[in-house]
Automatic annotation (TrEMBL):
<dbReference type="GO" id="GO:0005829">
    <property type="term" value="C:cytosol"/>
</dbReference>
<dbReference type="GO" id="GO:0006879">
    <property type="term" value="P:intracellular iron ion homeostasis"/>
</dbReference>
<protein>
    <submittedName>
        <fullName>Uncharacterized protein</fullName>
    </submittedName>
</protein>
<dbReference type="InterPro" id="IPR002634">
    <property type="entry name" value="BolA"/>
</dbReference>
<dbReference type="Pfam" id="PF01722">
    <property type="entry name" value="BolA"/>
</dbReference>
<dbReference type="InterPro" id="IPR045115">
    <property type="entry name" value="BOL2"/>
</dbReference>
<dbReference type="GO" id="GO:0051537">
    <property type="term" value="F:2 iron, 2 sulfur cluster binding"/>
</dbReference>
<dbReference type="InterPro" id="IPR036065">
    <property type="entry name" value="BolA-like_sf"/>
</dbReference>
<dbReference type="GO" id="GO:0051604">
    <property type="term" value="P:protein maturation"/>
</dbReference>
<comment type="similarity">
    <text>Belongs to the BolA/IbaG family.</text>
</comment>
<dbReference type="GO" id="GO:0005634">
    <property type="term" value="C:nucleus"/>
</dbReference>
């Protein structure tokens, strides 16, 4: 029995690579982070930095991501997202250093 099967009652087949591929295809990100928080493919936290988010408010960006990744999200227990424009990401990185 795999480690994932032991730790999770219902492991999914959604891998980090699956999530990265979907994000890349839909958003052409300049930066992305995909973290499998539960190690079983049931809880993901993503950061997406893309020009697609230019001029959009936070709620609009979340809606765009939720709609674009609806198939993947429907297979998850939990999904958390942060979406930025390249300029917003640069500013955030500068503040962190």
């Amino acid at each position: 029995m795999s480690k994932c099967a032991k730790e999770c009652a219902e492991p999914t087949e959604l891998t980090q690579d699956d999530m990265r591929t979907a994000i890349t295809e839909k958003f052409n990100p300049v930066h992305m982070e995909v973290d499998d928080l539960g190690t079983c493919g049931t809880s993901y936290q993503v950061i997406i930095v893309s020009d697609i988010f230019e001029g959009k408010k936070t709620l609009e960006k979340h809606k765009i991501v939720n709609e674009a990744l609806a198939e993947q999200i429907s297979r998850l227990h939990a999904f958390s997202q942060k979406s930025y424009t390249p300029a917003q990401w640069e500013k955030k990185q500068a503040q962190a250093s």
